[in-house]
Amino acid sequence: MNKLRFSVQILFTIFTNGYVYGFLKGKIYQGPFKYTCVPGLNCYSCPGAVASCPIGALQALLNQQGFHIPFSALGFFFLFGSLLGRFVCGWLCPFGLVQDLLHKIPIFRKRKRLPLHPILKYGKYAVLFLLVCVGSLFLFGGFAKVPAFCKYLCPSGTLFGALPLLSTNPLLRSQAGGLFLWKLGILLLILFLSIKVYRPFCQYLCPLGAIYGWFNRFSLLQIHLENERCTSCGACEKACPLSLSVQEISCSPECIRCGKCTQACPNRCLHFTMKSNEDSHK
Amino acid sequence: MDFYKNRKRWLSRSSLWLWGFLAGILFLGIGSARGQFSVMWRKAVMICMECIGIG
């Protein structure tokens, strides 16, 4: 399962960032696929990105003059969320892959959570509300509204957008200043933290995770628990990188459906299913 | 009629994903009719200065 997930993560990242010409020339793809969104957090200013970032799209719609309900972005959230929930985070997000790879580096004693996790886990909802929604509606740079999350926080934009573009485009490089250093600092902090703590950005800051987490309880794809066969041995909880209990697995907004619990269960009573199940986690 | 007879099944949590999926398609349709895809595209095909920490 681990190898399968890793392969899917790599292939999906290459597939959605496959515009090699952009990396070579320091330009971005401008074709028709950018009318659609990828499911994960994937900056559309990445030179290789062939589709749009859903959070970027949401902010672009909120940045319009006046207030318009961002139906297109909501449509993508509902579509991906109701089918997959946070499976997107565990299997299809490029920034999640980066954090997974960093967490494999065998230095530091690994931690699943930060101290104050019960409070900090609500950080992603605060980011979603304050930066993505309120910030994009009311924060102005000159006469135009700004995408506050992209501008002040998003590490995916710095890693996949800023660094490749600035390394190949001297004109952009000459304009980098304090804001870039701020974003670079945030990126380095998150990457450094990822070596010790499992996916800190996903657990505490990602607004996309906050949205998809809401769908976890009823999405089509679930991890099904066969209650009759479960001996409550705790192997799944021990294997879960987020320390979720057997009752929380799959339906908790924190579960990213990485599938490590399904592998760890000695009785094979946890498995992926394409049927939303209301009895399995009662 | 079938829907009325089976309403408990259709409104149960196990079928909520389907309502979410249909709502997603509906929202995409409304967004398309309002020209929101063009707004998204225009933003996505230009280098986003805010995203890369310049704007």
Automatic annotation (TrEMBL), chain A:
4Fe-4S ferredoxin-type domain ranges (all copies): 221-241, 247-275
GO cellular component: plasma membrane
Signal sequence extent: none
Entry GO MF terms: 4 iron, 4 sulfur cluster binding; metal ion binding
Any Pfam family the entry gives: Fer4_5
InterPro entries: 4Fe4S_Fe-S-bd (IPR017896), 4Fe4S_Fe_S_CS (IPR017900), Electron_Trans/Redox (IPR051684)
UniProtKB keywords: 4Fe-4S, Electron transport, Iron, Iron-sulfur, Membrane, Metal-binding, Transmembrane, Transmembrane helix, Transport
Transmembrane intervals: 6-24, 74-98, 119-140, 179-198
Keyword ATP-binding among UniProt keywords: no
Keyword Iron-sulfur: yes
Domain of life: Bacteria
Alphabetized PANTHER family for the sequence: FERREDOXIN-TYPE PROTEIN NAPH
Protein name: 4Fe-4S binding protein
Record organism: Parablautia muri
Organism classification: Bacteria, Bacillati, Bacillota, Clostridia, Lachnospirales
